[in-house]
């Protein structure tokens, strides 16, 4: 008897949640939360500070606990073999004013988790934000993702307390994934470092710990206008959210109206042209990076308290002793990188047929996993280029430094990664200069794209760098409070 094939019936599902962008847009337009008003966030953070002991002290390398310089390489390593190492890097480039240089760099091969939990409260999506102490932040305490942990931390190599809410991001089925993408961190200071950027939506009740609070996207957008409140890890995760359209019709012809159109409208260059340009730039730009021993690194000197250059430029490697009552481990020591001077990360923008475009740069950084990523128009510490001739200074830097205040659409000071960098602050700017200062045919290495195109690219690995993702989160935050 001939066997009969029985078709197995499988229920197919939509490829995407069509209602999700609208729910996120509704949260962006909600300027107040159901549980905590925006004007109360500052007092809430102050209360967290009062409840915990925080202390950061510079120490000599000899007082580092379980950290030491390897006898053969001079690399700064942890006794467990985990966490990270500080090594040397030799970099050579066929482009730019410097053909070769040496520098220390952090090697942290683990993929960490940066995850934000979201839930409907009062019918509106709220984001669970953590008041997290990081030793490198100038004000120590800032709002971070629900979970912000390296693999060494969440596997408890430090033998400390477990990471709260971690299961929502490690156990499939605990919630619905809103975003999940590997993204790079600072390619100038990290060697091939990626983190998993996640947003997970849940329906079940989630009781917030006293150091956590629920906020709408609109509230977070308003807080992004304040200096050093939303940390870098939260900004990069927020940039990955697929937020839907908002209505800027009450202000036709305004910058906000052009920004709203930019997120979902037509563009100067179709997506395939942008990808083709980026591919050509990746083929054109050549940066070679080779890990070398930290000991005896050319141009760098190791003292009792710091590894730095004799001229005091760029950055130093220093050591810290940390006390933080709110962390999984309350006391520890560690090395960090301390940059010399405040950075500037700026998008130059232009309205093209009523649609806002941002000028992105193809940025090759020694620590990137790939050849390059899209970055801001200007991304640098200005003082690092003081010795260069005018023609070798970063393009558009002088435009940004001398910007007419009337052309500044957004400005705030934000910290960079506070767990590995000390007092690393950058001024984030969005400028709209005169059209003749922002030519439609920009210099080589630059391209006009819409915010919507950036939002599409950021859903994929290693296309948009961390500084540009921060600016993307700030641009989206500028629309907070507008009608959905």
UniProtKB/TrEMBL annotation:
Organism: Actinoplanes oblitus
Superkingdom of origin organism: Bacteria
Matching Pfam families: Hexose_dehydrat
Cited InterPro entries: EvaA-like (IPR005212), EvaA-like_sf (IPR038153)
Span of domain dTDP-4-dehydro-6-deoxy-alpha-D-glucopyranose 2,3-dehydratase: 38-240, 272-475
Name the record gives this protein: NDP-hexose 2,3-dehydratase family protein
């Amino acid at each position: 008897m001939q066997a009969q094939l029985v078709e197995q019936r499988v229920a197919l599902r939509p490829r995407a949640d069509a209602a999700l962008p609208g729910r996120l847009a509704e949260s962006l337009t909600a300027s107040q939360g159901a549980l905590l008003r925006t004007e109360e966030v500052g007092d809430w953070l102050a209360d967290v500070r009062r409840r915990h002991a925080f202390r950061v002290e510079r120490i000599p390398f000899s007082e580092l606990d379980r950290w030491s310089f390897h006898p053969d390489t001079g690399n700064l390593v942890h006794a467990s073999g985990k966490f990270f190492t500080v090594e040397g890097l030799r970099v050579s480039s066929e482009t730019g004013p410097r053909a070769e240089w040496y520098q220390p760099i952090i090697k942290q091969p683990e993929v960490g988790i940066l995850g934000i939990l979201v839930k409907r409260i009062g019918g509106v999506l709220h984001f669970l934000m953590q008041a997290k102490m990081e030793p490198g932040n100038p004000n120590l305490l800032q709002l971070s993702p629900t979970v912000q942990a390296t693999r060494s931390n969440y596997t408890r190599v430090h033998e400390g307390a477990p990471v709260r809410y971690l299961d929502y991001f490690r156990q499939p089925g605990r919630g619905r994934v809103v975003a999940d993408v590997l993204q790079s961190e600072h390619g100038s200071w990290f060697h091939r470092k990626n983190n998993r950027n996640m947003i997970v939506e849940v329906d079940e009740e989630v009781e917030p710990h006293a150091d956590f609070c629920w906020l709408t996207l609109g509230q977070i957008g308003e807080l992004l206008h304040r200096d050093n409140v939303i940390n870098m890890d939260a900004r990069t995760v927020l940039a990955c959210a697929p937020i839907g359209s908002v209505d800027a019709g009450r202000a036709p012809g305004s910058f906000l109206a052009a920004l709203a159109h930019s997120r979902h409208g037509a563009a100067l260059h179709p997506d395939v042209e942008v990808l083709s340009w980026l591919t050509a730039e990746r083929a054109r730009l050549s940066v070679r990076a080779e890990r070398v021993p930290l000991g005896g690194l050319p141009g760098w000197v190791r003292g009792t308290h710091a590894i730095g250059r004799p001229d005091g430029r760029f950055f130093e490697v220093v050591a810290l002793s940390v006390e933080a009552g709110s962390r999984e481990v309350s006391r520890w020591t560690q090395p960090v990188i301390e940059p010399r001077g405040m950075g500037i990360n700026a998008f130059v923008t232009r309205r093209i047929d009523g649609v806002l475009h941002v000028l992105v740069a193809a940025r090759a950084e020694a620590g990137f996993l790939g050849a390059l990523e899209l970055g801001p128009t200007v991304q640098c510490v200005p003082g690092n280029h003081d010795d260069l001739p005018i023609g070798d200074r970063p393009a558009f830097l002088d435009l940004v430094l001398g910007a007419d205040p009337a052309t500044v659409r957004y400005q705030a000071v934000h910290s960079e990664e506070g767990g590995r960098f000390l007092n690393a602050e950058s001024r984030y700017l969005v400028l709209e200069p005169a059209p003749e200062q922002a030519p439609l045919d920009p210099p080589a290495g630059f391209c006009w794209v819409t915010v919507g195109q950036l939002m599409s690219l950021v859903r994929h690995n290693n296309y948009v760098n961390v500084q540009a993702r921060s600016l993307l989160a700030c641009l989206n935050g500028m629309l907070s409070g507008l009608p959905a």
